[in-house]
Write a structure and sequence with these properties.
About 55% of the residues lie in helices and about 0% in strands. By secondary structure, it is mostly helical. The protein has one domain. α2 crosses α4 and α3 packs antiparallel against α4.
């Protein structure tokens, strides 16, 4: 089957669905691409909310990111293992904030 979708999934996301050797995906590429699009959209949607939360609380960016990571890690968020950390790391990147240590 021809896969003509032009969305490039970054290596950091592919790693979530790769075998330990990193040579093969554990899921079909179309499923990984769909999960990536969901996570990227989520990170983009959280930009304004995170910036507002940081401004209103007057707290640090780490606290905001930690709170979001906690919320995204819950079963109600619908994310697969590893995806919450990826979303928060991507969110930090979009905002120009330092990624939380948990994500390293």
């Amino acid at each position: 089957m021809d896969d003509s979708n032009q969305i490039l999934v970054p290596p950091s996301f592919l790693a979530l669905y790769s075998t330990p050797s990193g040579l093969r995906l554990r899921e079909p590429i179309h499923a990984v691409r769909a999960r990536y699009e969901l996570c990227e959209d989520l990170a983009q949607a959280l930009v304004e909310q995170a910036a507002t939360a940081q401004f209103k609380s007057g707290g640090g960016t780490r606290e905001v990111l930690a709170g979001l990571l906690g919320a995204l890690g819950g079963t109600d968020a619908g994310l697969m293992p590893g995806e919450p950390i990826w979303v928060v790391t991507r969110l930090a990147e979009l905002l120009g904030w330092q990624a939380p240590e948990d994500a390293a």
